[in-house]
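Incident review: delayed structure delivery

Summary: a single-chain prediction request sat in the queue longer than the usual turnaround. Root cause was a stuck worker, restarted by the on-call engineer. No data loss occurred. The affected request and its eventual output are reproduced below so the record is complete for anyone auditing the incident later.

Affected input:
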Amino acid sequence: MAVQTDDQTILQKYPASIEASANIEIRAQVAGILERIYIDEGSKVKAGQLLFKINDHPYQEQLNQAKANLSSAQADLQNAELEVEKKTRLVDNKIVTEYQLKAAFAARDAAKARVGQAESAVESAKINVNYTSIRATSDGYIGRLEKKQGSLITMADPQPLTVLSDVGKLHVYFSLGENDFIAFKNATPGNTLQEKLKNLPPVSLLLSDENVYEHQGQIDMVDGQFDKNTAAITLRATFDNPQGILRSGNTGRIVLQKEYSEAVLIPQLATREVQDKVFVFTVGPDNKVTQQSVEILAKSGENYLVESGIRAGDRIVYKGIDLLQDGQQITPQPLAKDSIH
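Output delivered after worker restart:
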């Protein structure tokens, strides 16, 4: 058969890991007994929804004490201001000295400062009371519940109460080898990497059950460096996940389309592999065959796309190559292109 060329679209698949756009650790900001758990593992929650309740009695008492201290400080300030008024009149009448008036002003300023401290203590106590109600910071899904009702929890606990996954959008990470990444960049229009990212077509996600995910994604991030151990660079594609079908931790494969114009095609049946090298038998003008090594660019169905080794128009043996020897003369039988399977 004569080697043909054709335009080809190749689907390249790369293993991918799926992560939520945000995995938020839900932690206690005050210590206490976990009084109530309002959600279950896997629950879908809305931003602001109440998740956990810590016993707030100690913090309510602290708030009450802070309010009482504030009332006392305000009363002390009122007395200090009355003392300033009294000393001012006495100084005007030359009954007491200026020094005593200045002392009254200093006492009033100190009382004002104590009121400020007491007000701050009240606000701090209110914050602690609010911290006993632990709420969702965003929409998402609840992970494992690490604590049970009645447990003592602290801010220093190594494990969070749970992890909230925001899966409205998913980040899908995959890696390209150095050669694939260079070819990927060269095939995409744009002067800078950011321009190239904007010009990239949407990509597909092949799920673990070999079904294609219903929404397409967009590559929007390239890592800053290659991994020195794997010689690969990580890319990220973002997919919408409005129904929450996928979750953080799923796996799949990113499918990239690559276009080849006038690619040299040969059937895989016309090749054989020897020590990781691919060979074909070319047919010379005298009908003698020569074993020729070829460099494979990609696979397309049952065909190879050839980078080097043969050219369009070269004749190769399609069937019976296992019986051939280098230099053997054959009687070629022409083969129509549409008869190649």
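Verification: The CA atoms of residues 128 and 316 lie 81 Å apart.
Action items: add queue-age alerting; document worker restart procedure.
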